[in-house]
Amino acid sequence: MFPVKDDNPTSTVPWVTYGIIILNLLVFGYEMSLSLDEKALINFFDTYGLIPEKIVNGQSLFSLFTSMFIHGGFMHIFGNMLYLYIFGNNIEDIMGHRRFILFYLLCGMAASGLQISINPHSTVPNIGASGAIAGVLGAYLLTFPGAKVHTLIFFGYFVRWVKLPALFVLGFWFIIQLFSGIGSLGYMTADTGGIAFFAHIGGFVAGALLVLIFNKKKRRFLDGRFLGM
Length: 229
Prior knowledge:
- It is built from nine helices and five strands; from the N terminus they run βαααααααββααββ.
- It is of the alpha+beta class.
- It has one domain (2-221): Rhomboid-like (Rhomboid-like fold).
- α6 (97-118) runs antiparallel to α9, α7 (130-143) crosses α9 (197-214) and α8 (166-184) crosses α9 (197-214).
- The longest helix has 22 residues, at 74-95.
- Residues 221-229 have low confidence and may be disordered.
């Protein structure tokens, strides 16, 4: 299941969402310039990526923020930025630009916090905007459950384009993260890499809770119409 766009118009230009996407792309471009020197790239990840063991020991606390803007490859950044582009504009619209910045960063920190608590002795750098963007998805599901999301569904070699409610698309995404996270518990070690499922879970739950505070317009999307709350 691969979301492409949503039918959920906004009343403002999502400058912060665009800015976050541009910043991530600029950082990724810098990473690509380092890729010619593998040692320099590894050092960049070790310095600015979030290493749970360091955070637990009170070191490199700045990486709680910097790690949100680093990605490990083209598909990693493409998927994250696509989700942010599709769903971020509506959340920024209901919160306002400044609130959305704070919301985004808090979701990212909450995501990192849960991941650290699950594997506090990990020495593997955690990188990516997935946790913060998961917060955007959690906020979107709670605020716009009936919004239609254009989605590609793959059946082997066949692909179908369908419109599904956000409740189904994002709810399904969260369930996948939840079960994948639980399934990964028995395999985690200090040097195990892979997908930080608990960062996704933590960010999603944080976003669903924080939107109740940050939602300036107090509106909910249902059956294609905005309803006052």
